[in-house]
Every structure is written in structure tokens, then in C-alpha cells.
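Could you help me review a protein record that somebody else here produced? What it holds is a sequence and that sequence's fold in C-alpha cell form. I need someone to confirm that the C-alpha cell line plausibly describes how this chain folds. Take the sequence as given and treat only the C-alpha cells as open to question. This is what I was given:
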Amino acid sequence: MDFKMLSPLTLAYMGDAVLDQFVRGHIILKYQSKPNRLHQEAKRFVSAKSQAQTLEALLADDWFTESELAIVKRGRNAKSHTKAKNTDIQTYRKSSGLEAIIGYLHLTQDEGRIIELLNEIVKRVEERC
């Protein structure tokens, strides 16, 4: 299957789940705390605002390959038929772009690159906070 042909919002849907699972594993190992604290920590990584900031930083550093950047842009430019909760539309679109590339790398089973990206996201969020 050519995963580039999937809707960018479908890729973002998958990417959201992959990022959430990775972050949960990270914070469980790091904090070994009660679920409420874990949830508060997870929000730092998976909120639309955090994802948008991380994407902006990755783009500024030319972190993505040319083909990955095309997926990011498709995700960012996709028109969603649902209203963004708790954020403005530009922030929501940027977060969708980051989630889309995560979803794409996961579905294509590019394990080395997906782990590299997820670790980079965690690193950059922790440096910001």
C-alpha cells in the first residue's frame, strides 16, 4: 500500500496514537508516579500547542528530509471538518502536520526514523519546560 496516498488527517490520526503511546511510556519510566501526575506531564508533550512549537523548531533546523517535509505540509494544510478544541486553527494545523509525519513513518515501518523523531520531540519538549 502506498501510505502517501492516505488522507493526511488519517496519517495524523495514527500519529496522534503513536506519539501518545511513546510519551506515556517515557513519562511512566521517568516519573513513576500516580496517574494524575502522569497525565499532567503527558499534556506537555501531546498538546496541540506543544506539538506546533516542536514542529516549528524542527522546521527551523531543517530536520526533515524532502519527502518527509511533503507529508508534514500535507498534514498541516489539510482541511479538517471538525473544530479544534482549546486552540486556534493554525496551531491545530501545525500539530496535525507533526502527527501526520509520525503516522506516516509508523505505517511505513521506518523504525529507525520514527524512533529518532519521537526521541527528538521528547528532547525538545523537555528542553523547553
